[in-house]
Protein: TonB-dependent receptor
Organism: Caulobacter mirabilis
Amino acid sequence: MRKTALFALAALTPLAFAAQALAADGAIATAADAPTNVEALIVTGEITYRNRTEDAAPVLSYDQEYFQRFEPVSAGDAMKRVPSVTFLSDVLESDGARLRGLDPGYTQILINGEKVPGALADRSFFVDRIPAELLDRIEIIRAPSANRSGDAVAGALNIVLRDALTLNGGYVRGGVTRYNDDKFAGNAGVYWGGEVGPGRLLIGANVQGRRAPKEKTSWRYKTPGGALDNIEVQTDVRDGTDYSFNASYDVAVGGGDLTLEGFFVRTDRLQDEDSLEYRGGIRDNANLLTANDNDLDILTDSWSLRGKYVRDMFGGRSKFKLGYSELKDDQFEFEQELEFLRDAAPFPDADRFTRDETRTDLKDSELSAELEHERDIGFGKLSFGVQYVDKSRDNLVTERRNRFNVANGVNGGFAYPAPTGSWTDQGFGKVAIEETRIDPYVMLNGKTDLVTWEVGLRYETTDTKITDDSGGVGAADRVTENDYAFLLPSANFKFRAGDNGRINLSVGRTVRRPNFDSLQPILLKDEYGDDQDFIGNPNLKPETAWGLDLGYERRLPGRGVAGVNVFYRQISDLIEEDLLSVDRTDPAAVKRVYTSKNVGDGKVWGVEFDLSTPLTFIGLENTGVFLNYSWLDSDINDRYGSRRFNSQSNYVFNVGFIQDLPSWEAAFGVTYRKQGNAWSRITLEEVRTEYGGDLEMFIEKRIGERLVVRLTGQNLLDSSKDEVFDKFGSIQDQIDRKHDEYEIETEKAGPVFQLTARYAF
């Protein structure tokens, strides 16, 4: 509780500045658009469509009202409705966003336009950690600009939180969610924005119950088409609560505008998996092979404090930024298993007990600063500046194992015995990674009657230091240092095409830094199976990419917009797993060690279409339709031949409508989403993944000018995730297609219903 209070205080630090500003001089800072009255935002009878932005870079902007009526739980749930975003998550989960279907590490996740640390080894941020109630809008940034970090090969997703210039007034929110297992979870929140002293303040807090009950079944064979070896029946329940606080204060100070903002998000979650495995697929006690209990307890805290000051000076406009972000992720996982058919005595007599425990303590922090100056040079504006990031990532992983034979008649059935004192340490990994980046840039932009343009050059420098302290007490630390630099040019053009159309053209170079797991020089035993280990390579080079985007966008009658875009990425220095060494000193157990290497090139391309419009042109002004479709493809070569980028779906499709009923002060709507098949090939395993369609709906009733009640239904088609695994004992077996195991797994979850009310005050 003390830690929670501390982080909450950090998130609300702008309140302290607001209090001090009560006595300060100066006028209220104003935005280009006046803050929205809460009544218009919360109790609205208008359908909201995708925005057209005036930036030279291709940006698609979706306001919070675009998603709100379907009551998404998280930013990830909201992203399911925008073009080209896919997920490889379990059913009812939307965590690692895959823009254009690529691995999350290729997508830059921004919060309020700034990078934030993520818990994952690929540097990505789980977007389901941000409650949807915090959102002001989501932006898809398809191409790079010189004033943004270049690690956005697939593009960037900018999660813009509500700030002090967003709301005028307050509202409270409350609701309850019913899941398919007859369990309930509640949610509540309160937000307020308004004038405080000479500035504007926004504060908000939200508590969101989260639950995802699923059922899985796996069928395992020795080879495709062979006899059924065993079947595993599993329940998987993810249960937890998300807490969030945010605050923002905007005030005029010393002739300029000062913005202070902070947020804190806590994820407290338990993932409980229980399974029973049966010989030959015969589900009775005589054929019970194993009973398994696997729990993962997660506590993740993310918080950020940032300040920005903008002032006219030196013949132009200067901007100063300073920020600190931190993510702390503590996880404890145990897996315990009873084996029943090691001898002739079947259930309830267990024969063997095994328990594995893993503790992970991760802290990732970033200190950032930026100086930028912009001035008019006649034919356009010149911007130049420098961005600084000091990143520190400390990761400690400890593992231990306990196993013993169980005497017949003792601890029979599903009673897991207490572990004995004979724990075996499986080693630990303790690695510290420090990265320092200094990235200067220069950018020119301008506008004529026919074209809006922006050209820029960014120079990114990175110094990396990796300290491996996994040797234990008395062992010397292993320190590896590396540095690299890249020139990243970019150009964005937006051409006028008639009164309602425009053409976007963008070209630029981007970069993807290596995964932390790939960099860490830690030997992971049996990572790819028995006697097949993996060790990281701290000398990896980042991947780089040249990209092209070409699109056409047209304004439709009313407030509608339609657009089509084609994109291409040529990626160099791809990072893949490769064989490092082979130890044949023991012919009975040949030891192979794999590592990560820069191995070659790949390319990604696709076509993206989006439409959101009222049906005013056929007399249905209170009917809004939404549609987006992305066709995605790629090519990469590995030791086995040509393939797509791992786990890239071949398409993603969204369609839906909202019908407003003004005379009834009500509305309803439906959306349908379908994500195409994905295929992945790594060392010793290949996976094919298929998702069912996802149908959602809402019904709302507005009561007066201040209250709206909304009923939503999600996963109404009992969507499933189906996977096929081809598993091999060695690389040569994989080449020769000699299976070690062939597995088919299906995962399914039921409908989720949510009743929510918002009241504006």
